[in-house]
Amino acid sequence: MISVEEALEKVLSYVEVLDAAETPILDSLGQVLAEDVYSGINIPPLDNAAMDGYAIQAKDTEGAGSESPSFLRVIDTVAAGSISETEVTPGTAIRIMTGAPVPRGADSVVRFEDTDEEERKQASAGGMSGEIGILCKIKTGLNIRRAGEDVTRDSLVLAKGTVIRPAEVGVLASLGRSRVKAVRRPVVAILSTGNELVNIDQPLPAGKIYNSNTYSLAALVRRCGGIPRILGIARDSEESLVAGLREGRDADMLITSGGVSAGDYDMVKDVLAREGEIGFWTVRMKPGKPLAFGRIKSTDKGGASRYIPHLGLPGNPVSVMVTFEIFARPALLKMMGRKDLARHTVEATLADRVVNSDGRRVYTRAIIEKRGDKYFARLTGPQGSGILTSMSRANGLVVVPEDRAEVKAGETVQAIMLDWNEA
Asked: What distance in Å separates the CA atoms of residue 421 and residue 102, rounded to the nearest whole number?
């Protein structure tokens, strides 16, 4: 039985960053850039108005105030997306909307609120006169966004290795990029095992249970950015298990649940050893002790031999989710080119006593709350590995080290945050 650290190191050593693919920018959300992105344009492309107002020459507002406006002749109006061909000269102004290019001759934009436009509208029943009064002195360059202020032509905008968030999608769109080269998402084949399992759309006979593990795993894969591929259920026979494993050999990772304990029908690790190689079996953790990891023989599209990593998770639903978080999630993130493989952890004061009876690292499901500048943890209730609702109520896992026989209420513990809203 190996430690959690040894097991994770082994798992990560078996996976590599996947190849890149051209991806529509909206589909690339959460992926990692596989290329440096340079700009072919200036953003903004031209000097433009940062406010609705009047494009003027700042020197025309010398001495202007609410009691002594500077009056300018309005010679044109320009909206965003249009360009005025009229030049601003001393004593003139062009009415301009936010985003419109600043006309020739203008060096500033005075906002509507700093003019007498509203009074003029009221006086003329909504109409506009050919003159505007400026009610304050302004500085040269006021309310003008300069060409290239955000991005300059030929500059590096997004570096290879950047995680694509909504902001990066927007930046790519602003560059006119509809597609981008990104590390592709791993395809994860998911196979549940056991004669006791029933598909969720079927009636439930006596002595059977619904196949929840497949859907927990598929959701976890999707949540961390992978593409789940559901293979269904393998029955407790070597023939059915081998057929299921072979069906998933064209994926980037294969995850099974069940069949890794020491029972008469637990044969995943034996088949794994025969179909490929086994890296380890059993980890010093609770829940999740019976966990098999190795590689399955396969071939690539060109017919060359390849191996795909296989995680044989326990069958209990909580064990499935906890072991996925500890081992599968970091492996999938590495395959996607991510560097931030670990979830955020906090120190929290524990409200409940936790007993560690057999020298394994214990992961207890907990509700972590922040009060002031401190965190507090309380267990979700009964902690049996078959109580799936203990995961649905939890937003974190409290970690009890192997060398601690118990952690008392009031002690400080490390908590892995499954849902982190302070990033």
From this structure: 42
